[in-house]
Design goal:
The chain has five helices and three strands. A three-stranded antiparallel sheet has the order 1-3-2. Helix 3 packs across helix 4 and helix 4 crosses helix 5. The longest helix has 19 residues. The protein is globular.
Length: 111
């Protein structure tokens, strides 16, 4: 293949690549970037009440509780929590829904 033939093939490739890279992407507006909560239903009232019980421990001198301490607090202080399974369920739902988050085995309130 001659040098002229090689250059012609390269030019064609460059034109194709350039035309692809110069195509405009759809604009992303700020409204499409907003994080929004889904239509996920709110937590049941008994779980929200259990959360309020946990909040009392957070308002004292700490901003975190061990999972075990939160579990015990629910069992002893929350009227609607009767079993270990209830306390575990509440903590799992609060974590799943973002009401609490866990760092190094400690539970913290969101916001």
């Amino acid at each position: 293949m001659s040098a002229a033939g090689a250059d012609a093939g390269s030019a064609a490739i460059r034109i194709d690549v350039r035309s692809v890279t110069q195509q405009k992407s759809p604009a992303i507006t700020s409204s499409s970037q907003r994080m929004r909560y889904t239509d996920q239903p709110s937590l049941p009232a008994w779980i929200q009440t259990a959360y309020e019980t946990l909040e009392t421990a957070y308002t004292s001198e700490t901003d975190e509780l061990s999972r075990e301490a939160a579990h015990e607090l629910l069992l002893t202080e929350a009227e609607q929590i009767e079993t270990d399974a209830d306390a575990t369920y509440v903590l799992d739902r609060l974590l799943d829904r973002g009401w609490l988050y866990e760092v190094n085995g400690k539970l913290r309130k969101t916001g």
